Amino acid sequence: MIGNKTTHRTVDGVRIPGTWRHAFIRNGDTHFLTDLFIYADGLIDCWELVTLEEFQDKLRSGWVATTLPDGAKASAFELADWTFSEPHSHLTPDLLVAEIRDTIDQLNGRPDSTGRCLAAVDTFLADRTEENRAAARNAFLAIPISQRLYALGDMDSKDWPLRVLVAGPGGETYIPAEGPITQEDYDSAVAYFEERARWAAERATRVPADGPVTSFAPAIKLYHTYPSKPVGAPGFRGLRNDYPAPIVVGGVSYPSAAHAYWALSVADPEVRTAIATAETHAAARKCATAAAQREGWQHARTAVMAALLRAKYDQHPDLAEILLATNDATVIYDDADSGFWGDNAGRGRNWAGRLLELVRSELQAQRAGIAAL
Predict the structure, then answer these.
(1) pLDDT given at position 212
(2) Over the range 66-88, which residues count as b (16 or more CB within 10 Å of their CB) and which as e?
(3) Does the pLDDT value for residue 207 go beyond 80?
(4) Could you tell me the pTM of the whole model?
């Protein structure tokens, strides 16, 4: 299961998604508790990048250890050292490889062993032949035994309905102590899946109570530009904070929202005046960064920028229409000078883009007659 454990590596500018899991690597006479990094392209980092086949060699050699000898040394690097006493491992080499194969499928958005099993079960329920049952049973047993309990995502029933369904009346599950499956148990398992199918069909038709989770409009990117004067049809360039759209804030006129931002950031009123009359945004920024900053500015700057953007789009309805036309698209804002305001190829925080989305939502609320409390 990947969960929230996501990472990546970059190869020739391409981002390869990955995840990690704990493991022991035996180096010399010490077992080091470490992480295996597993990537979507099938490579595994076990202190070096290897293919899945090479990883199996690492398992066979004991470099990646699933057997922990009594009395062996162990280390969590600078965190702790200890000696194993009556250790018990939950993994075998085959089980670890099977789990990693599933992880690679998940990273690629492909059905893993659980997905393939559930698909086979659907086929059986639609056409209940013994051939289809056998296929479903084989698919179920192909799920790593450590993952079978989670196959249905139901921690009350666990995998009981699955193992009963694929065994069939009179059949036996992979748990010998359960004995032959009774007709009553089998009927209960079938009823479980029929109810599950009804619930899934109902869920698919539900309208989210608070609207969609993700945007349906394509993301837009506001590339870093150096506008010198307004144009008749600026398009998305008009959404840049440094686009020359004069705004009046506190009785002072500024050539752009960016000018106003930099002017308000400095403590000296005379410097503010110089910034407000700077020819370009770049000159305004240079002047501001050379001056003393207002106390508490770093904590107030997002609120200030939000207010300036509201003023910009209130005072320039034509630009507000451009912003509204982006619908609910994610706004990706490039800022070569700031990793705080810019997305910058995923390395920045994109606050400028996020605030544009906020102001857009406020404009949409005004247009719909929805008053904010």
Answers:
(1) 74
(2) bebeeebebbeeeeeeeebeeee
(3) no
(4) 0.65
pLDDT at 373: 60
